[in-house]
Design a protein that fits this description.
Order of helices and strands of chain A: EEEEEEEEEEE
Structural class of chain A: mainly beta
Radius of gyration of chain A: 14 Å
Shape of chain A: globular
Oligomer: heterodimer
Number of helices of chain A: 0
Largest sheet of chain B: 6 strands, mixed
Number of helices of chain B: 0
Mean pLDDT of chain B: 95
Largest interface: A-B, 24 and 23 residues
Helix content of chain B: under 10%
Mean pLDDT of chain A: 94
Strand content of chain B: over 45%
Distance between the termini of chain A: 36 Å
Largest sheet of chain A: 7 strands, mixed
Chain lengths: 116, 111
Amino acid sequence: NAGVTQTPKFRILKIGQSMTLQCAQDMNHNYMYWYRQDPGMGLKLIYYSVGAGITDKGEVPNGYNVSRSTTEDFPLRLELAAPSQTSVYFCASSYPLAGGPENEQFFGPGTRLTVL
Amino acid sequence: QQQVKQSPQSLIVQKGGISIINCAYENTAFDYFPWYQQFPGKGPALLIAIRPDVSEKKEGRFTISFNKSAKQFSLHIMDSQPGDSATYFCAASLINYQLIWGAGTKLIIKP
């Protein structure tokens, strides 16, 4: 199993450009997440999905969009990139067990994005 | 109320010593408290987790201590090793499985 894969690993964007960060998982997990990680700030949830066709906003959704057409893929779209979106972006997936709060999230290697 | 406060920001421990990282929360609706470990250039990975109805959980050299009345929990790493050098994040889970993360602690174990 490849686990959670993300592409690209690095990207430099100019202000106002758009791009899509790709995320895929091969573990048949129903939950998927997008986080951004800024130095000294921990991880902030951008969007999450509980299954194909279902997405919801997290703490910091402004400037981003997602879609979930299949169980495996969960792309993150940045429209009109701004310097404030310079960050490391992590995709994660999980399969919470019914009846309990346990929910191990499995993370991809991250995408380092710089907006200049 | 949705915050998880983590301290210290950074920590240096001698090899063989005990590393202690603390977290505090306000929201009593949190029902699951994991700790994640992150090495440079990698995504976080689950290290150990605890439910609020348990006061302590131990897995090898790693122990979570949980104080429900004080709304605090901590990670103890016994016999700390250079390979434990990483950034550690505490987190707390809401009923919909969303995680609220602490800011992280960069741990350095000196040989």
